[in-house]
Amino acid sequence: MASTEITYRDALRRALQDGMRADETVVVIGEEVGAYGGAYGVTKDLMAEFGVTRLIDTPISEPAIVGVAVGAAMTGLRPVAELMYVDFLGLVMDQLANQAAKIRYMFGGQIGVPMVLRTQGGTGRSAGAQHSQSLEGWIMHTPGLRLAMPATAEDAYHLLRHSLTLPDPVVFIEHKSLYTRKEMADLDTPAAPWGKAIVRRQGGDLALVTYSRMVHVALAAAEMLSQAGIEIEVIDLRTLNPLDMDTVIASVERTGRAMVVSEGPLTAGVAAELAARISEECFDYLQDPVIRVAGEDIPIPVSPELESASIPTQALIVATVQRMLRR
Amino acid sequence: MTLPNTNLPELYRTMRRIRTFEERVAELYARGLSAGSMLHLSIGEEGAAAGIAAAMRPQDSFTTHHRGHGIFLARGADPGRMMAEIGGKAAGYCRGKGGSMHIADMTLGHLGANAIVGGGIPHVVGAGLSYRNLGSDAISVGFFGDGAMQQGLLYESMNMAALWNLPVLFVCINNQYGMGTRIDRATRSVEFDRRAEAFGLSAAMVDGEDVEAVMETAQRLAAGARAGQPGFMAVSCFRFFGHGRMDKSPYRTEEEETIGRKRDPVARARDALLSRGVGDHASLDALDAEIAAEMDATIDFTAAAESPAALSMFRDVYGADQPEPEPLAVRLDRILAA
Q1: Average pLDDT over residues B236-258
Q2: CB contact under 8 A, A167 and B105
Q3: Structural domain boundaries, residue B119
C-alpha cells in the first residue's frame, strides 16, 4: 500500500515497463516510440531495456500502424500501438472501428483483438485545431472498443496495466495537459477496479459526472462551492466503456441534480449520452434538467485565450451550479 | 516435353470445387436462401486461389478480400459450413454473424475476409511481425483485388513488410474490374510488379489461367518470404460475372465477356490433363459429378440449418465484461414502468 509521488507520464511509463516485463508478447509500435522516447516522453528509455523488436519505430503511416497491430494481436502478440495525437483518428478509423472493433463479433467469437491504442488528446498547449481535440465520442459510439481516460497518475498506471490483460481492443486516451502533473499514487493496489467509476468527492447537493482532466477542474470548482456552503459530489468515470452507470445513478438519486462536464464538443458527444441516460434512468429524482457543460461546437482555436474559452472552466461550473441551486 | 512438377489433378479438383461451389452460391441466392445479395463470385479466378493455396503450408495464415470464397475453399474449408455462413445460419463458420464477406476460421489460418477494400492487408503484416517475434516459420498471405492497388494502405503495408523483412506475401488477383470500373479507368499503370519492387519486395506477374504457373510463382515467392524477403504477385484473370449478384454488368459488352470467359483456368487444366494423358473424359466427368453432389449437399444443409437464436445477437461483442443483454424493448419497458 506504499504510495509514491509520481507524474502521470512516469506512471504510464512504469505501466508499460511493468507490463512488458510481465508479458513478453507485449510490444510497443508507433511513430517515435523507440529511439525518440515518445513525442511526450512516455516511452523514454524503454528501448534500452526492450530493444528494437519490442519498441518498434514505424514510418508515418497511422492506418498501417493500427492495422499491423490488429494482425499482430490476432496472431499471438499484444501490441500497444501509439497514435501520437487523438486527432489522427481520422486516418485510422477504418482499422479501429471497422476492423479491431468488429473482428470478434463478425467472426462469431472465434478470436479477439487484444491490443491497446494509446493516444492523447485535449487542449492546453495551443496546439491548434488538428492537435487538441477530444474525440472520445467517436470511440464511445463504436461497440467493441473499450475506452479508458485516466485523470490521475494512479489510474494512468492501473488502467494501462489492466488494459494489457484484456481480450479486447482498448483505446487509452491520455490528456496532454496532465503528463507533468505530479501526485501521490499507490502503484500496488488500484483504488477502484477496471470499469468502475470512483467518487472523488462526496456531497449531497448535486452529482457532477466527468472524466480525464475535467476531474481536476471539477474538484477545484467543488472546493470553491464548498466555501459558499454548497457540497457537490464529483464522479470520475475513469472508463467510458465500460460505462459505470450504477455509480452515477446512485449519486443522482441521492442528490437530485446532475451536471455532466466534458471537454469534448457539446453536440452528440459524451456529455449528451450521459445526460440522456441520467434523464431516462433518474427522471423521478431530478429537480432540474440534467445540465451539460461541454466544449463549444467549434474547432479548437490556437490563441491561448480562445482555446481556454472554448472548453468548460472552473468559473463556469461554479456559476452554473450556484444558479441551479438557487432556483 | 517435361511436365511441370505440380500435382495438376489435385489443382484441377480444387478449381472445380471452387467453380461448382460458386455456382451453388448463385443458386442459393436465386432460391432466396442467402443472407442478402452481397455475394461476390470468384468464377474465373480459380487458378489464383488454387495455385497460391497449394504453395502455402498448414501453419501459414491469410486474409482475403470480399471475393474470397475460392481461396478459403482451397485452404481446406468445409463447403457446408461456408454455405451455411453465406446463408446466415448458426452452423456457419461465424455463427451467422459474418456472412460471405466476413468469413474466417482460425483453425485454418483464415484471419478473415474483409469488406473494406484493402482492409485486411495490414493484418498479414501484423501476423508477419508476430511470426518474426515469436520465432515461427509461418508466413502470412494477403489476398486482394486490383481495386486495392489504388488504396494507400497497401503501400503503407508493403513498405513496413519490406522495411522489417517480414514473412509476408501480397497477392493481387487482378480480375480487371473494381466493381464496374475496368482497371484502365482506375490507373494509368498496370505494371503492378514495378510498384512492389519500388518498395523492395520481390515481385512477379503471372497469368491466372495457368494454375501451374501461378503455383510455381507462389512457391518461389513464398520461399523468399519465409526467409525474410517479402513478396508480391499479381495474378491476371477475368471476372466472369458481375460484381455482386445484383450486377448485370451494364458497363461492359457481351463481346468483352465472351472473350474474357475464354480465359478459363478450369477448362485449361482439364484440357492439359487430357492432353497429357493424366485423365480421360470419363474419369474427369466422374470427378465433376462427385463434386457436384458434394456441393448440392451444401445447399440442402443450409436450407435445413437453423437461424441463430435471437439473443445470440448480443454475444461476442466483447471477450470479457460483456454486459447483460437488455434488448431495446425491454429497456424501454423498464424506463417507462418506473
Answers
A1: 95
A2: no
A3: 8-337
